[in-house]
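TA notes, week 10

Several of you asked for a full example with nothing omitted. So below is the full record: structure tokens for the whole chain, then the designed sequence directly under it. When grading your own attempts, check the secondary structure regions first.
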């Protein structure tokens, strides 16, 4: 919380630049980030475990994420995070 206003994960990362080519985007960047953060907090250690976590909880994630093409694959999680600017992400 900042001051008296709630501050969500999505609020924090909505300004993060998406480095992907527009025509190649099947999944929302915020969806990928939120699933990854939740999975890691719950103990996921790699992209396969993150994708499995997302698939196991897809119904729950659909309550607040867009997920236009479902849960991304483990390859997608890895590719997207490899492309992100680490300084911008950590800020």
């Amino acid at each position: 919380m900042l001051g008296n206003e709630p501050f969500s994960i999505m609020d924090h990362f909505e300004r993060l630049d998406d480095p992907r080519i527009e025509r190649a985007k099947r999944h929302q960047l915020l969806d990928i980030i939120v699933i990854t953060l939740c999975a890691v907090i719950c103990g996921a250690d790699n992209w396969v475990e993150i994708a499995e976590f997302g698939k196991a909880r897809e119904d729950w994630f659909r309550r607040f994420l867009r997920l236009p093409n479902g849960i991304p694959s483990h390859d997608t999680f890895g590719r997207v995070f490899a492309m992100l600017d680490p300084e911008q992400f950590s800020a």
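The first helix runs from residue 9 to 13. Use that as a sanity check on your answer.
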